[in-house]
Each structure stands twice: as C-alpha cells, then as structure tokens.
C-alpha cells in the first residue's frame, strides 16, 4: 500500500510493513488507488481553481511518465477528485466543477498507461443547483458507478444520487 502525508510526501509499504524510499507527489494529492495486483497505483489531485492531475507510479513508487491533466475544460473551478480502478486495469477520475447552474460532477476514463480512453463528460443530468461530494467504484463488469450529493433533485434538500457507466464513460 502507499501512504501519503502532508506536503505530498509518500512511501510504499509491502505486505509485511516494510517501506521503500520516500518520494514526493508533484501536486496536492487527494486520492490514490491501486491499478491491479502488483501493477502500481495512480494518484489524483490538484483542485481548488486549478486543474485536476493524475500520476501513475509502479509498485516501488517510481513515477511512470509525466503528470496527466485530467480535465479538458480550463474554465471555472475544478476540485474534489476521486479515482477508481476498472476491471481491465484502466482507471476513471471524477471531480466537481462549475456547470451551467452552479456545480456538477465530471469524469474521464484512462487506460492503464495513462492515455485517455474518453473525453471529459458530465456525470449528472440534473443541473439545477449543486451536485458535489462525488465518490466512485469500479465494477466487475468493467464499468463503474459514481454517486454524489445533489441539491433539490429528489424534491427535498440534499439527496444522494448516482449513475452506472461502462468502461468508456457511457451511461
């Protein structure tokens, strides 16, 4: 597993608790997920009014390639990224960003080498007020489910809603 501390300092630990060398994540890390048995992991972060970034590491914590800018839209705020591994070893990143009413939940799917499998897409279809606090999980069928908080969608104040997507981000 990998432990990430303040300032983006990180260490990889094996199953016995032995650690490797300390290394630094080149952006503000906010989520990490394993890419598969012994295949390494992906870290996502950034946020605030900044872009969302991903970085792939091998199982020893060595950076693989350069930072990946996840979001394609450069306008407005991008924040609160989450990441999940897909059945085929790829991964999906979701985040909160400005939309036509206030804020929405967006996503993008990547192959295990960091190349984009999809363009950026909006997960929520309800765009009245705020959609935020997203979470995501990969499914055994290769797709994923994302859930988020939506204000006013269920006729009450805050409700939890979600959608299922295939491994290319199609609902």
Helix/strand/pairing category: mainly beta
Q: What is the mean pLDDT?
A: 89
Overall outline = globular
If you compute it from the alpha carbons, what radius of gyration comes out, rounded to the nearest whole angstrom?
16 Å
Write a structural description.
The chain is mainly β. The chain contains no helices and 14 strands. It has strands at residues 2-4, 9-12, 23-24, 29-36, 40-46, 52-57, 63-69, 78-85, 91-98, 103-110, 121-122, 131-138, 144-151, 158-165. The protein has a four-stranded antiparallel β-sheet, with no helix packed on it. A hairpin with a 4-residue loop joins strand 9 and strand 10 (103-110). The radius of gyration is 16 Å and the shape is globular. The chain starts with a strand and ends in a 6-residue tail after the last strand. The mean pLDDT is 89.
List keywords for this structure.
single chain, 171 residues, mainly beta, four-stranded antiparallel sheet, 14 strands
What's the short version?
With 171 residues, this protein is an all-beta fold. The chain contains no helices and 14 strands.
Tell me the layout of helices and strands.
Elements lengths: L1 E3 L4 E4 L10 E2 L4 E8 L3 E7 L5 E6 L5 E7 L8 E8 L5 E8 L4 E8 L10 E2 L8 E8 L5 E8 L6 E8 L6
Antiparallel strand pairs: 1-2, 2-3, 4-5, 5-6, 6-7, 8-9, 9-10, 10-11, 12-13, 13-14
């Amino acid at each position: 597993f990998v432990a990430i501390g303040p300032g983006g300092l990180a260490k990889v630990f094996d199953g016995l608790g032995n650690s490797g060398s300390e290394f630094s994540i080149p952006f503000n890390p906010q989520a990490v997920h394993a890419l598969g048995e012994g295949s390494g992991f992906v870290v996502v972060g950034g946020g605030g009014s900044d872009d969302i970034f991903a970085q792939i590491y091998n199982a020893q914590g060595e950076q693989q390639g350069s930072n990946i800018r996840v979001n394609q839209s450069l306008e407005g705020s991008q924040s609160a990224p989450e990441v999940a591994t897909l059945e085929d070893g790829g991964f999906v990143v979701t985040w909160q960003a400005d939309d036509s009413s206030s804020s929405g939940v967006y996503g993008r799917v990547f192959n295990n080498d960091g190349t984009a499998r999809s363009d950026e897409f909006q997960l929520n279809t309800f765009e009245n007020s705020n959609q935020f606090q997203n979470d995501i999980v990969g499914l055994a069928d290769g797709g994923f489910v994302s859930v988020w908080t939506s204000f006013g969608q269920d006729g009450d104040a805050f409700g939890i809603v979600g959608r299922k997507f295939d491994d290319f981000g199609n609902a």
